[in-house]
Amino acid sequence: MNFDRRIALLFSAGVFFAALTAALLNGRRTFASPNPTSATGPDRAVIFGFNPSLSAAKPVDAASVLAPDKGKLRITINGQVVGAEDFEISPSGEAWLARGSMSAHVSGGAEIKASGQLKLSSDGAPLRYEWSAQAQKKATGSVEFEGGTAKCSADLGAASPMRKDFSFGSPRIAVLDNNLYYQYGVLARLYDWKAGGKQSFPVLIPQDMVPGTVDVESFGAPQMQKTEHDALRVSTPDLEIIVFLDANHRMMRLEVPSSNVTIERE
Fold this sequence. Notes:
The structure is a single chain. The longest helix is centred in the N-terminal third of the chain and has 10 residues, at about 5-10. By secondary structure, this protein is mostly beta strands. It has a 16-stranded mixed sheet. The chain has one domain (about 5-30, about 45-265). It has four helices and 16 strands. The chain is globular, with a radius of gyration of 18 Å. It has helices at about 5-10, 20-25, 60-65, 180-190; strands at about 45-50, 70-75, 80-90, 95-105, 110-120, 125-135, 140-145, 150-155, 160-165, 175, 200-205, 210-220, 230-235, 240-245, 250-255, 260-265.
């Protein structure tokens, strides 16, 4: 089942858009085919490769990549409020912590809860990520980042956790997990505003254990509100997400035009 079909099913079932990010990456995934006869087996790590031919975003000044931020995001579908997310980005010793916790409920579906805490170095490279998600069942997981490798573990209630490793061409990987939207604010910090133009980022979706890439490009949007100064287009050939930011590049609003979804700072 492709990601576009999966997101349609999730909407019809009232389970919100847990596969939104997966659909975003559908057009740009580049997987190395695992050997079915390999001794690693289904319970062991499988290595997927990031395509190095895609242009990677250039590092920016480490002192200006991350900045403290805290707030609450209102989640709406077709103009109806369905949930909210509290988030905070703050320094922690020599590293940074970006964390968020959301809950949402769509008519006819179960309540959805998700939380994530991302530890990053000062240049925006992820160091460790911990997440939990709950709808009908609860799941938890973590990712350890070492250079360009992401070591993922997920506990879905089975006898042993699922484990996979992913290898990327850059340590500056964007974490864009299901139903956690503060992470697009972190992505906006990774974008090199001085260089501008279209920049490609390796991406990991920890809850789905899916790697890929997204294109990010700044542009002037006529539908900006008074509090907004810049906008980023996050896209693949299959989906587009618009992130609106203030003059300090704090995320103010996120829109998914094809799904009538809006995430807005209160």
